Amino acid sequence: MRIAAGVDVGSTQTKAVLIGANGDGVKVLSRSLIDTGANVRKAAEKAFDECCQAAGIAQADVGFVVGTGYGRYNISFGHTQMTEISCHARGAHFLCPGTRTVIDMGGQDAKAIGVGPSGEVLDFVMNDKCAAGTGRFLANAAEVMGLGLDDIGPLSLRATRPVKIATVCTVFVESDILSYLSQGKKPEDIMGGVHLAIAKRTMSLARRVNIEPLVTMTGGVARNIGMVRALESVLGQKIIVTPDAQFMGAVGAALFSLEKLGESFESSVWREHAVSSGD
Amino acid sequence: MPLVAGIDCGSGFTKALVAAQDAPGSELRILGRGRARSGINVDQAAEEALEQALAGNARSDLNYIAATGFGRYNLNFRDIAITEITTAARGAFFLFPRAGAVLDIGSQTTRAIAVKDNGRVNTFKSNDKCAAGSGMFIARAAKYLEVPLEQVGNLSLHAAHAHPISSVCAVLAESEIINHVSSGVSVEDILRGIHDSLADRAGALLKRVGLKDELTFIGGVAHQQGMVRALEQRLNVKVNVAEDCEYVCALGAAVLGLRRLASRN
């Protein structure tokens, strides 16, 4: 079995995935998830180490490692790097076949990617100026409300009269939320409004690529069911979310690794041949 | 002797200024100033600020209260509500009648106002959708750098080489600032880079309303000397800063309140 790894060093969390390929096909062997923190290099090492331990595989047996994400150039052990855009497209194509659009909402970024029939990137847009639509926005909103990040999504689904959120600025929304709380609005209605505002904002960004079904959501925010539902209501179509949504970048990177591994096998065979014919 | 109060109910702080006119037609005399954190209850913050601004004068002697700022309609004991654009222009004109432009950087809003030669508003542009370019951007940066907000202006003034910041978003700037710190850039240089970036953003707004050779800078951020220096250097204009720069809208409200009172009597 050929074993390949992908390590996705995100702004907030670092994800590692091991995949294995044999005659039966390709499958995900293990995953790991840790907070990136201040030391990007260490985070990548730790995520990779945990991932190998989870699969019971020695690091030396991993044939190829591809790094992706914003910290990809800080990975000490990676063989090469790919952009997270290519990796999310590739991962979604593999885990959710038929994906033509990826909406990736991570810790500090929001992206929409147009995906071709073989998993290639056709087009993409991303936020580069503003934290609206990112995990940071939702984490901030949760903090102001005194709620856990995992609780706000389900809570938002219980909204009956979502409040109107005029700003999508992560900083200003704090005072919006506080003033709604002081008016006695229900937490679920405030959170419903927050999710809807961010869904509208994200879809207006995403509409700059050609949105074709199937639409797959990736990134850590995909864990938030309220955000998925809000995006579906704004988009007017179903969005696919897999349990591995947060690992999609790492899965894509691991798939690229596997490809490289194939290439390097072939090239080493070719080199041997070339050498022998030179004799 | 008419006694008037201008109360500026800002998003961060509520500022009150009490002034008197000793004789009809004479210039207004400022008696006191006061401020309180705005919080949730506008009336309560305004009471607290007004109490300080009265400086021993009796509340019952006040003839007129003009409210301005973001929370002006929530102030129940007002006689009139005036937009902060009008009061900013009027207050700045009272202090520096020659400046044709006003820059107001508050905690949540940045505004550029072109002022006519009679103190009225000619035109204005405002950035209030996001914290980019606002005082809140600096407050956040100070928090990431663990520097008290009061020291920001002076530290920035002592920068050796301003270190540019590319983030526009106050939240996304956090990782950029942390990266700068961990790569050994001094706090002074980072803060000056932030002031330069804010000055450039303010300059873009000011150019849209028309900036000539003199500018009056108001709002709490005007206390930061590094920001004043950045504006002077990047925009190449004379920058006027009043000693009590965060009370200029309250002052403008008092001036206009007095005028309204005179026309009513």
Defining traits:
heterodimer, A: 279 residues, alpha/beta, Nucleotidyltransferase, domain 5, 2 domains, 5-stranded mixed β-sheet, disordered C terminus, B: 265 residues, 8 helices, 38% helix, globular
Stretches of chain B where pLDDT is under 50 for at least 5 consecutive residues are none
The tally of helices of chain B reads 8
Q: What coarse outline of chain B follows from CA principal-axis ratios? A: globular
Strand order of the largest sheet of chain A: 3-2-1-4-5
What is the string of SSEs of chain B from the N terminus onward? EEEHEEHEEEHHHHEHEH
pLDDT averaged over residues of chain B: 92
Output the number of helix runs of chain A.
8
CATH architecture of the largest domain in chain A: 2-Layer Sandwich
Beta strand % of chain A = 15-25%
* CATH fold call of the largest domain in chain A: Nucleotidyltransferase, domain 5
Helical content band of chain A:
40-55%
**Biggest interface pair, counts:** A-B, 19 and 17 residues
Distance between the termini of chain A: 33 Å
Mean pLDDT reading of chain A: 90
Q: In the residues of chain B, how many domains can be counted?
A: 2
Tally of strands of chain B: 10
Radius of gyration of chain B: 19 Å
- Beta-strand portion of chain B reads 15-25%
Q: What is the SS-derived class of chain B?
A: alpha/beta
Structural features, described:
The complex is a heterodimer of chains A (279) and B (265). Chain A is built from eight helices and ten strands. Chain A is α/β, with parallel strands linked by helices. Chain A folds into two domains: 2-90 and 247-278, ATPase, nucleotide binding domain (Nucleotidyltransferase, domain 5); 97-241, ATPase, nucleotide binding domain (Nucleotidyltransferase, domain 5). In chain A, the strands form two sheets. In chain A, strands 3-2-1-4-5 form a five-stranded mixed β-sheet. In chain A, strands 8-7-6-9-10 form a five-stranded mixed β-sheet. The relative contact order of chain A is 0.18. Chain B has 265 residues and is α/β, with parallel strands linked by helices. The model of chain B has no long low-confidence stretch (mean pLDDT 92). Chain B folds into two domains: 3-89 and 247-264, Nucleotidyltransferase, domain 5 (2-Layer Sandwich); 98-241, ATPase, nucleotide binding domain (Nucleotidyltransferase, domain 5). The radius of gyration of chain B is 19 Å and the shape is globular. Chain B has eight helices and ten strands. Helices cover 38% and strands 23% of the residues of chain B. The chains are: A alpha/beta (279), B alpha/beta (265). The A-B interface holds A 11, 38, 108, 129-131, 136-137, 140, 167-172, 175, 178-179, 182 and B 11, 40, 108, 129-132, 136, 140, 168-172, 175, 178, 182.
